[in-house]
UniProtKB/TrEMBL annotation:
NCBIfam families per record: pept_deformyl, PRK00150.1-3
InterPro entries given in the database record: Peptide_deformylase (IPR023635), Peptide_deformylase_sf (IPR036821)
Protein name (database record): Peptide deformylase
Catalysed conversion reaction: N-terminal N-formyl-L-methionyl-[peptide] + H2O = N-terminal L-methionyl-[peptide] + formate
Cofactor or coenzyme needed: Fe(2+)
CDD domains named among the record's database cross-references: Pep_deformylase
Organism: Treponema succinifaciens (strain ATCC 33096 / DSM 2489 / 6091)
Underlying gene: def
Keyword Chaperone carried by entry: no
One MF annotation (Gene Ontology) recorded for this entry: metal ion binding
Enzyme class, UniProt record, top EC level: hydrolase
Length: 192
């Protein structure tokens, strides 16, 4: 699966809930593919919009090495106590920033088999990952929760990267068309 990068519209959309009839083998296959993509990218969480799907689900493997699936998650409680932690994101490779989030959360969600579950008083890395991935489902990126100047610089950086990639692609296409035209002219000469 291709991981969408900052600047792609799908990352800023509020995702739609997954219907109960959509929790099926097709969704489970997508979830497995997301786990594979996340692991190969050295990530700890991956939300559906990050792979171009505007639906409310994400996958997580925290420091306890347990594969967790959250479908239609709702954070139902957060602690008053906050902590700061350096966050990164597979959709913003190469940048990170210290972000303040609640230390503990309780979350309700549906698993890959359609069963509702609640995780109470989750803390540590898992709590942070759940909050980060849940933000993705609402079109929020971690840079929206940090320093405004850092956010603006990061947005500009990714905009320039996208422009360079677009320019390279256009140059490649122009070169290809030029070669095709030369080949066609050569073949036309041979035909005379």
């Amino acid at each position: 699966m291709r991981i969408c990068k900052l600047g792609e519209d799908v990352l800023r959309q509020k995702c739609v809930p997954v219907e109960s009839n959509e929790v099926n083998d097709e969704l489970r296959a997508t979830l497995n593919e997301m786990f594979e993509t996340m692991i190969s990218a050295d990530g700890v969480g991956l939300a559906a919009p990050q792979v171009g799907i505007s639906k409310r689900f994400f996958v997580v493997i925290s420091d306890d090495n347990v594969r967790r699936v959250f479908i239609n998650p709702e954070i139902i409680k957060t602690s008053a106590e906050n902590s700061e932690y350096e966050e990164g994101c597979l959709s913003l490779p190469g940048v990170s920033e210290k972000i303040v989030r609640p230390v503990k959360i309780s979350v309700s969600a549906i698993d890959e088999n359609g069963k509702r579950f609640v995780l109470d008083d989750v803390d540590g890395l898992l709590a942070r990952i759940i909050q980060h991935e849940n933000d993705h489902l609402n079109g929020i990126l971690y840079i929206d929760r940090g320093d405004e100047e850092f956010k603006n610089k990061t947005v500009e950086l990714f905009k320039k990267k996208a422009e360079r990639a677009q320019k390279k692609l256009a140059e490649k296409e122009a070169k290809k068309r030029s070669l095709e035209a030369k080949l066609a002219a050569k073949n036309a000469k041979k035909g005379k």
